Amino acid sequence: MEIGSNLGRCSVGGNKSKLIQHWGLLQSWLNEGRVFRIWQEQLRLAINQWQTSNRDEDVLLRGNLLAEAQGQLEKHPTELSSIEKDFIMASVTNHNLEKQAKEQYKQHELEQAQELADSQKLSATRLRYMVVGLLILSIIIFSAAMQAYSNQQIAIAERNRAENQADLALSRQLAQLVTNEINMLSETQLLLAIVSGQLAYGAGEESDMLEGFMALSQMLNQPAYVETILMGHTGWICGVAWSHDESRIATGGFDNAVHVWDSQTGEEQLLIDGFQNSVCRVGWSHDDTYIFTFSAKRFQIWDSKTGENHFTYETGFGYWNDDGALIWTNDPHGTVQIRDVETGEVYLTLTGHATQVLSLKWSHDGNRIVTSGEGDTIRIWDSHTGKVLRTLEGHTASVHRVTWSKNDGRILSNSNDNTVRVWDSQTGKELLNINHTDRVLVAKWNKDETQILTTNRGNTAQVWDANTGEELLKLDGHTSDVQYANWYEDETQIITAGNDNTMRIWHAETGKILTVLSGSHYQINHDETQILTASTDGMARIMRMNSMSPLPSFQGHVGTIWGTLYNDDESQMLSWGLDKTARVWDAKTGQEIFVLKGHAKEIWGAKWNPDESRILTYSWDGTMRIWDGHTGKLQLLIEAPISTTNKEIRQAHWSRDGKRIVACGRDGMAGVWDSYTGEQILSLNGPTDLVIRIMWNHDESLLLTTGYDKITRISDAKTGEELVKMEGHTSNVLDVLWSPDESRISTASQDGTVRIWDSATGKELLKLEGHKGIVWKGLWNNDGTRILTYGRDGTFRVWDSQTGEELMMIKGHDANVFLAKWNQDETKILSFGFDEKTWIWHAETGEKLQGFHGMWATWDNDEDHLLVASSDGSLQLYHTDMEAMLDIVCQKVGRNLSIMEWKRFIKDEPFRKVCPDLPLAYLDVMEGHDLVRRGKTDEAIAWFEHLLEIDPMLDIDPQAEIKKFFDE
């Protein structure tokens, strides 16, 4: 079976429920039709005999056969051909003539006529027997053929079903691998996700694609994807560096070589080789004229365009100062020499350390130098005279790194003694000592120096309060030493890299892991849009730091987002949440347009007015605010008449003309306000507790309210007079809705029920019972025939709104269902909850169709995309169409699966290129190179020829590949 053989297969579905309702009638039609068609086949055999016998009258139908033919002619006059009708009418005419002839025979000719009749009858009988025999034989042959055809179709269907099931099983297996395996190259995960998606899309119904869809969606929307692959090293790359103008990249590795690359194209520009050992430290001069390398205790400077050696220092390590004019070099005996970059002449010598210096930093004002090394002391020097100004003592083992604070007043150090320490640079006093469980590898301040980020041999990274030493965050996940760590510029994320060949991006507030990338060394470019990574597979990668999907993400909120809303043309998106702000975004790019900031507490909701010129927000702080919809400037502040400490406003709506606002909240506050003056126009008399819902009816002549007094009311929207009262709930009513025709009202309550009321009389019509605990809402469908309910028990249910029958119950979440709603044509249901899972369900069968991570979601108008909000304050737009995602990822991914990867993960299935337009993986070519290096020339040629059979467009010549190695 060829993987992906089902990719072109599609299915056509109909309205199965209607088909089943009329199945009996349909079955009778089919049975009747089947009898007629069999009889018609028999008739055609007789007609054929009649025509070949020159229309011999003896072949015509007689008796029961004729009677049956007359009956079929009467029932199916339009379904019989002219020759079939002629044959039947000829048989009728012949029957009438024979009858007439018999009546005219004379008595005296009776015996002769009888003999003749007997003879004719015998002939006719024989002929009829022959015809009947032929008909029976034809029926047997026809039945056998039909049975054989049916068996063939069943076999084909069974084979297709088996292939589909096998493809779906492999799709689910790969999806699980992609979702769970974190120690895998990110491109490999992505490619396996593509295979999973292709198999699911080709083999199954929409509900069968769930695992493949989620795996592909997860990879498609991760914060980074491979943009360029740098291939040329033959071993582990252990050093990477961007040039300062970011046009070039230098990499060094275990193959004892340094490569220089064009960062845009990935083309190799320069090779510096011949090193005696691996090159794991590379860097650029400030003007990108030179490249420095450190290998086998040899510090060297090279011309970055020609590769010519400019300077070599035989012992120790070196680095440039901040202005790039000086370099420092050290030796094993603790001597440091400051040299001129151009001439190599010694500018200053620092002598005092007993052992090798590992770290040297100039102060920001350039007047002092701090050093540390394999000894346990730190020294501060005068950068002009080389005099020791102060010695910092306290560490009990090697000090790997020292860093100045921004004002040069403090020094941060980390040591093999499992501590990070902060020192006063003027007095040498130890200000802070943070103990770790193992050797500290990294210690860095954040921008305002209120926090310190550290890593240690315990496979973790930690964030500490820089004043108290209190642990603020612990980042667990790496399976080996964490060698590198840093904040992003806005400090919303932290990136770490370890010896487990993974890089991890974490949310800096929560410590939640956002993504895992391949690589053990990294460097971020200036605007933080790209990460340069190095890996054990001999390849460097430029990772683009946003999702592979062209769909935007929206970053800005801190903490839970309560809701989102598109404007009418979906050019903008409005969001609000726990951080007391609402934000307006460009829905196409994810760019923040402005922030609505001023509320003292969380914002419950936000809405555009009808012409989108203004925005209404309402909050727990007891205020409603109206903002300019174009600039975000505050236009009006409305303070609700609430006297309690908790002043929450729970709901507010614009009128259809935008001139009024209706709102409700604490202290029984419910009424209408002028949206331009802020004056309260109407106050409703009702409960003294919380009014939780208020809304107009369609023509805004009535107001519907409910709340914590367990009563639902309909009031006159002009006078405030109470018209209808609905009582019956035994606990607080949490939601209320008009039916589409406004003849009924649904209420949801903490008493675990949803009730349906007559809106004219207030009479209770139905009580929907089944939820365990609080029910949040009873949502009407478009024609008012069904109600969707959801609650704290983690379920949502669909009910018949006329009978109260429960039509479907789905245990969809591990916790409280935050919201559930139908899509526009009511074929799907969207649900999300406090378990931070968002699901799309089949509205008839209840099967899961798609899933996302988040606790709030909104469809766009065409429902091709879903906007999902997470508790960490992020918003991400996702595709909901599998085919669209497959098209995107093959345009973005950097390579195909290698043959070895295919064998490892796909196993026995025949190899194919995952993305046909991409070349074979360079890893496959490297496999041939490895055979050459091991002296297996014939095997290498065979391997290269095999690769060309798979991909004739591959740019290799087997003989040339072999010759290239011998020439070297």
Task: Report the biggest beta sheet as strand number plus sense, adding barrel if it closes.
Answer: 4 strands, antiparallel
Helix content: 10-25%
From the alpha-carbon coordinates, what is the Rg to the nearest angstrom?
41 Å
Number of strands: 64
Mass-distribution shape: flat
Strand percentage: 35-45%
Low-confidence stretches: 1-30
Task: Indicate the mean pLDDT.
Answer: 83
SS summary, helix count = 12
Q: What is the rounded distance between the termini?
A: 44 Å
Features:
968 residues; four-stranded antiparallel sheet; 12 helices; flat; 23% helix; disordered N terminus; single chain; alpha+beta
Structure summarized in a few sentences:
This protein is α+β, with helices and mostly antiparallel strands and 968 residues long.
Structural commentary:
It is built from twelve helices and 64 strands. By secondary structure, the chain is of the alpha+beta class. A hairpin with a 5-residue loop joins β4 (257-262) and β5. α5 runs antiparallel to α6 and α7 (210-220) crosses α8 (882-892).
